[in-house]
Amino acid sequence: MSHPSPKLFSRPLHALFWLTALVCLLPVISSPMALVLGIVAASLGAIPKGVNTGALAKKLLAFSIVGLGFGIQLDQAIEATRAGLGIIVVTIFGTLALGTLMARALKLDSKTGHLIASGTAICGGSAIAAVAPAIDADSKQVSLALATVFVLNSVALFLFPVIGHLVGLSQEQFGIWSAIAIHDTSSVVGAAGAYGDQALITATTLKLARALWIIPVAFLSALAFRSQSRKLSVPMFILYYCVAIGVAHLLPQMAPVWEGVFWASKRLLVVCLFLIGCGITARRLREAGPKPLMLGVGLWLAISSVSLLYLLA
Q1: Which member of 1, 153, 296, 297 has the lowest number of beta carbons within 10 Å of its beta carbon?
Q2: Quick check: helix, strand or coil at residue 206?
Q3: 293 SS3 class
């Protein structure tokens, strides 16, 4: 088994990086605070060479999501999914259609536009990663889409809880709204976790139900772009999350253990947001460019406002 190189800890700033990551496990650090700490760490050059914060965040996110499954009641999960099914279907395909029209109006590359629309419609980076090979997108198109979604995710983490409190959304309403209108699972559970435990449960359940639409959307995308690729990348943590819910349902006598796992998973999620913040740099913001960002913002405003009005009606 390989061990981290001592060089990773050679500089004081690098040691500060690891210390900050550990501090994010403590309840005193909130999700937005963790994201800001990550941005500061990146700005100071505190990230050790050889540490891929994006890859590490992705792995830890999968573990944290699976752990959250142990804190979700099966009957609540079924009810939340059933209640939100209609708006999920409408917003997914409505966003994809609107994205196509807006990309044409902006004269943006069609594949880049479709990737941004897919990320907005379903689950951010995971959807982009799955759809990209289906439409034979190149690395530049993928990076532009990811950067656009990344920026908007960061904004949503701070903005959505504030708006939710201003308009008086209930825990369940905010969970539904964040699952529909925020891109990546990490930011969804981060924003919902800051709003409350019930919001977190509702948001996580609906977001992962929404993520299942990666499969049909990727196939439809391959057909639309006449791609011969059949390689799909569907996050396995969705399956494991469902298994966790089932295990907790079948073994209710271990409820204290499941509660502990659920709490630990929420703290691990905060660490994930710190690592995600470490990836926000001026270079990545420049790479997003004006047109992809305009498309991303336009779609985001459309899906968030329509779903919010629906919930308030």
Answers
A1: 1
A2: helix
A3: helix
pLDDT in tens, 62-76: 788 788 888 877 776
Q: Could you tell me how far CA 63 lies from the centroid of its own chain?
A: 14
User: Rounded to 10 degrees, what is the CA torsion of 130, 135, 140, 145?
Assistant: -50
- Radius of gyration over alpha carbons of the chain, in Å? 19
The model's pLDDT over 241-262, given as tens digits with 9 standing for 90+, comes to 788 888 998 998 998 999 999 8
> How much is the mean pLDDT over the chain?
82
Separation CA 69–CA 246 (nearest Å): 9
The vertex-146 CA angle with 131 and 117, nearest 5°, equals 55
* pTM summary value: 0.70
- Does residue 300 contact residue 166 with C-beta atoms inside 8 Å? no
Cα separation, 167 vs 177, whole angstroms = 12
Q: Tell the residue number behind the tokens 């880049």, with chain if given.
A: 112
CB 74: neighbour CB atoms within 10 A?
Answer: 13
DSSP state of 7: G
Around 218, how many Cα atoms within 13 Å sit in the side-chain half-sphere?
24
Which residues lie below 8 Å from residue 184, measured CB to CB, with a gap of 6+?
123, 124, 125, 126, 149, 153
Q: How far apart (Å, rounded) are the C-alpha atoms in residues 233 and 85?
A: 23
Rounded to an integer, what is the distance from CA 144 to the centroid of its chain? 17
Cα–Cα distance, 221 to 202 (Å, whole number) = 29
How many CB atoms are closer than 10 A to CB 125? 22
